[in-house]
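Thread title: Can someone regenerate the structure for this chain?

I was given the following input by a collaborator and told the matching structure tokens would be attached. They weren't. Posting the sequence so someone can regenerate them.
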Amino acid sequence: MKTKRILSVFIIAVLVCGYLPRCKTLSKQSECINNSGAPVILYSKLFNDKSNWKVIKKDSLANSGHIKIKDEIWLMHFLHWWSLDEKNSDISIEYTKKLLENLWGMQYSLNGIEGETKINGHQAYYVEGVLRNFVKTRFIVWNCPESKRQFLSDCNINIALKTPDEFLNLQTTDITNSVCCHNSNNKPDNTKLEQRINYEDMNISINLPENWRSEYYIVNPNSIKNRPGYYQNGITKQRGAVWNLLTDSKKEINLIWQKSNNRLSEKYMNIALNKLFNDTLTIMNDTLKYISFYTNISSQNITFKNDFIESTGNFDIVVKLVGRAPVDTSHYLYKAFLWKYEETEYLLVATMVAYNNIWDISFDLAPTENQFNGFINDVVLKSICNHPMK
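Best answer:
Regenerated them for you:
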């Protein structure tokens, strides 16, 4: 059941993003010469080798239009450890392959990437495989005689969502090489990763990027024995796991416009938002029919500025099989701006996911206020030319 649950999460992620009809990447716009006129999206600010932004909707009629662009990736890093003894001390590439084939109970296809490396001064071996064209995984195994433990760095990206390989490299190099496996108070020589996580009771520390979070990986009591996360007696220094996840794995920008004779007001801000949040998406996958829709919409802090109205809030997106109970619910934060230019009303809405659980396991992945505001100010507003939000 656990394996099916994990696979269903990957499938849902692909359904929500991977099967949406997408427009071709639009030509890059030049920089704004002035800051007046109708708003223009500067695609050159978003579309680059290090991003995963895609245009997923582009409707333009005589009096209205809607452009939706989304940046969605998925990755997951685990650090596992267990006691080192005579039975498992002889590690090798073949040993690592067997771990990849058996640890999660999933059928990986090896892709030929394998070899040796050093982690925290210890000899290590790595193997890479692919799970059903959904996930690319690399296992890196090493022994730590000082703590009498064996460690596994379990690195994953969702390739069905076209998550860039640099996020796998981040896990296999920077994060894995930052692990202190026998003296958690040591500070690794790693300036790329700003955040240091110290599990002092486990004598383990690890460095992560600033917008990542780390938690112990403990699943519910009905999980499969001998699988990661089955720690009914609690995690100890000799057996356990932590998992490390990105907070801003889903981001979206909507620019909507329509001809209007209305004056800017709170009423019309709510009307404009309701039109967006009433959208329902139907997704077909073979014989399965999924729908996704907005719910639990909450708008706060509607503020009037000189030339625009600003609103913040949150909502949930539910994905479900038609005729069945929901299979996935994700929480989001949003910020919206409403303004007019000549006879046209413009609504700009930016959203960022704020997960509070993964696989039904509590995990606070809500972005910080500074992180969300940075996304609005440094990404969203800088990618829109001709707007009044200064």
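The longest strand covers residues 288-304.
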